[in-house]
Inverse folding.
């Protein structure tokens, strides 16, 4: 019963994600005006920034689940569940992080004429955050599965979350202003139509993450159950 | 004979590349999940066979 309810929820989230992604693409290319300053290439912003924000959400969700691992000391089943959920969230965070770096690099090339700029704090800090979480997998797969691995992975995921506000604020604290600052203390610096398009794209990306998260989690759970069944039958 | 210099990619080409990367990622992810589902289906079939053999 619970499995059917979870399947229905995933299907509903996936359908909504597809609809919103389609709507976002329609708004980006047929509704949002061309930016007077950056021209047509500014349209990369509508996917690049939501992808970056989604990767932050993934890492934060992974850290929240990691906290659940450390708190559920008496319940091994809860530890196992939270550990798997934390791992899947971090995994998707790294995937979204890679997409952020790739789309950002393409946008940089179109706007600044370079693929990468080591002088930009925001770029370098995001790369540090990305590499930090890449190392999570090295740590995780160098330890045998069990309570120790769950604890070590949880502590690592929790440490990484500290880098998120640093990465987010770097652009605002930086003295160089090559990287555009759209959301300031005075509110979003864009037209209402651009803001509406951005919000739809952000909602679409968050729903895409929710879909990928639930499907990947379901696949991993089935894998674990099959392994248990195989052990029972042999 | 000199080869004429290649024109730099226009803005729309960069935009297409950025959106293309995201599209390829989603496509790749669906392909990976599809392959995984096939593997799980095969493994489940093997286990059902094994359970039947045991009676």
């Amino acid at each position: 019963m619970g499995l059917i309810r979870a399947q229905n929820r995933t299907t509903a989230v996936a359908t909504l994600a597809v609809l919103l992604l389609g709507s976002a693409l329609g708004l980006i290319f047929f509704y949002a005006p061309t930016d007077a300053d950056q021209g047509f290439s500014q349209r990369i912003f509508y996917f690049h920034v939501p992808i970056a924000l989604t990767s932050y959400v993934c890492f934060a969700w992974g850290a929240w689940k990691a906290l659940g691992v450390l708190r559920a000391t008496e319940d091994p089943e809860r530890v196992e569940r939270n550990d798997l959920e934390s791992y899947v969230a971090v995994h998707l965070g790294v995937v979204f992080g890679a997409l952020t770096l790739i789309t950002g690099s393409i946008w940089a090339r179109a706007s600044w004429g370079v693929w990468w700029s080591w002088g930009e704090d925001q770029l370098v800090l995001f790369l540090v955050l990305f590499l930090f979480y890449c190392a999570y997998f090295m740590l995780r797969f160098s330890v045998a599965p069990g309570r120790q691995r769950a604890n070590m992975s949880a502590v690592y995921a929790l440490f990484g979350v500290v880098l998120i506000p640093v990465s987010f604020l770097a652009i605002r604290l930086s003295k160089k202003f090559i990287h555009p600052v759209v959301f300031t203390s005075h509110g979003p610096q864009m037209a209402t139509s651009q803001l509406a398009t951005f919000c739809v794209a952000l909602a679409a990306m968050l729903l895409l993450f929710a879909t990928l998260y639930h499907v990947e989690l379901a696949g991993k759970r089935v894998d674990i159950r099959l392994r248990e069944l195989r052990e029972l039958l042999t | 004979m000199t080869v004429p210099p290649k024109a730099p990619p226009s803005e729309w080409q960069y935009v297409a590349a950025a959106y293309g990367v995201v599209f390829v990622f989603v496509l790749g992810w669906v392909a990976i999940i599809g392959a995984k589902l096939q593997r799980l289906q095969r493994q489940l079939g093997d286990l059902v066979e094994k359970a039947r053999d045991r009676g």
Q: What stands out?
A: The mean pLDDT of chain B is 85. Residues 40 and 46 of chain B are 10 Å apart (CA to CA).
